[in-house]
Write a structure and sequence with these properties.
disordered C terminus, Cytochrome Bc1 Complex, Chain D, domain 2, single chain
Amino acid sequence: MADPHAKMTQATPQEVIISILAGLLAPLLAIFLVVQLVLSIQHRHQPDVSSEAAQKAALARIKPFGQLVALDANAPRVEKSGQEVYEAVCIACHGSGALGAPKLENKGDWGGRLGQGYDTLVKHAIEGIRMMPPRGGDGDLSDVEVARAVTYMANSAGASFKTPEAAAPAAPAAEDAKQ
């Protein structure tokens, strides 16, 4: 036990300064060593540039965002099926229900719309309604292609609409008879 009559000594200004500096130096040294450790670990870590996933990611980052396609105006036009139109155009909204679009195969979303009838649904799809642009935003789709897409989506929700057939091309014999 300490002697109660012992005299307390007072620290000199030099001792106070040394103890303050020592108290600050220890945490700063610890922070410095942790930072050096993290930097050395990061320096040794090299990305795997030889893996297939890394190569695909690099190609995805540098791919062009647009393509130039030259089409022959005289080439015969091949009409798409309802599923092809859905997968190319309609899935953007009707796949997720974006902007209130009825989802594919969701009977609850399509119930009220199916009650409007096939002709009304096709008319709305061709002309556009509410947030839906005309022809789903693809002006190159024919009326038959749009009707096929409507039939495909409506039938997936329980309707039994008949898939429209393409209009028959003009008969060459009729043209020859005119001449």
